[in-house]
Design a protein that fits this description.
Blueprint lengths: L1 H10 L5 H8 L8 H6 L20 E6 L10 H8 L4 E6 L6 E6 L1 E2 H4 L5 H19 L6 E2 L7 E2 L2 H18 L8 H10 L11 E3 L8 E4 L2 E5 L6 E3 L14 H7 L6 H25 L5 H18 L1
Antiparallel strand pairs: 1-3, 2-3, 4-8, 5-6, 7-10, 8-9
């Protein structure tokens, strides 16, 4: 009997109790009150089709892989994550990941036109603070997680392999980068000592553009899309790109001014990023060549700055 009652109200929690009593052939007062007292029925939820309202809701699902604590499993970790006000829910899942975290909001890119310049600046400042905390996480080695061929104990050779792979993909795909590759390698060798300043592998999101900054009510609720993350130099972060106005990000990050060597390394990371973006039209088969024209045009400009 209980199973029948629960099955019915699970599908329709607003069913009239008299109607339910008639269906089951029991007294109305006995239908659900006992299970409410016992805590079997904990509450009643309303299902809403938000797409039919004027309120737009976007939810990001973040898969998290963690190491369970001895004797406590995932409970403590899940509880710590759930305490953040930005988190809607945390689920234990099976498969390649352990926890599924849901965040509510919209990308900054989607709502930017509705925000004032001051609001955007505040969000970028907050993003800078968050990004700095991300970069405080360290690793024993440099490079891409799960890709041993792009890992190592020192940053310079790892970065060289990454850049060589990008240029190699351009050559394989017959993508004209519009720069002299030979001069690029000569210049990189001359700047080798600059990369010795990067002594500790830091967690770099590396794709923290407006489309991956989740916001709600003018506040950052999360940084999403970690597929490009790498253990490397924090100057690889989007907020340090030298061709953009990132004053608010840099203020939040706590580095309003870069040293000459930091500016030089940031310029190299411009080059690396633009090489990869130049490949996207070929490998992702975009309908237009707009991305290619933009990225190679900027790549030429940054390359000239690099060559002095």
């Amino acid at each position: 009997m209980r199973e029948k009652i629960l099955s019915i109200i699970e599908r329709n929690s607003r069913i009239d109790l008299k109607e339910l009593a008639v269906i089951l052939g029991v007294e109305e007062a006995d239908v659900v009150s006992e299970m409410e007292r016992e805590g079997v029925i904990c509450g009643y939820h309303t299902m809403i089709d938000w797409e039919k309202t004027s309120i737009e809701k976007v939810t990001a699902l973040i898969e998290v892989r963690v190491t369970p604590q001895r004797g406590q499993g995932f409970d403590n970790i899940a509880e710590r994550i759930y305490k953040y006000p930005e988190v809607n829910s945390v689920y234990l899942i099976s498969g390649g990941y352990d926890l599924l975290v849901t965040l509510e909001g919209k990308s900054l890119n989607a709502v930017k036109d509705t925000l004032s310049s001051d609001q955007i600046a505040d969000i970028k400042i907050e993003t800078g603070r968050i990004n700095r905390r991300i970069n405080e996480i360290t690793s024993p080695c440099f490079g891409y997680p799960g890709q041993p061929e792009f890992q190592g104990d020192t940053w310079y050779p790892v970065f060289c392999k990454m850049l060589e792979a990008g240029v190699g993909d351009a050559q394989k795909g017959n993508v004209d980068l519009r720069i002299s590759v030979d001069e690029l390698w000569e210049c990189l060798e001359k700047d080798k000592d600059l990369f010795d300043e990067v002594s500790e592998p830091k967690l770099v999101h590396w794709d923290c553009w407006d489309g991956n900054i989740f916001v709600k009510d003018g506040k950052v609720t999360g940084i999403i899309d970690w597929e490009r993350s790498i253990w490397g130099d924090p100057l690889m972060e989007v907020g340090f790109r030298t061709y953009s106005d990132n004053a608010s990000f840099l203020e939040g990050y706590g580095m309003p001014v870069l040293s000459e060597s930091e500016k030089r390394r940031a310029l190299w990371y411009d080059i690396y990023l633009l090489v990869l973006v130049s490949l996207e039209c070929e490998y992702r088969k975009y309908d237009t060549m707009d991305v290619y024209e933009w990225s190679t045009g900027l790549l030429e400009k940054q390359f000239k700055s690099l060559m002095g």
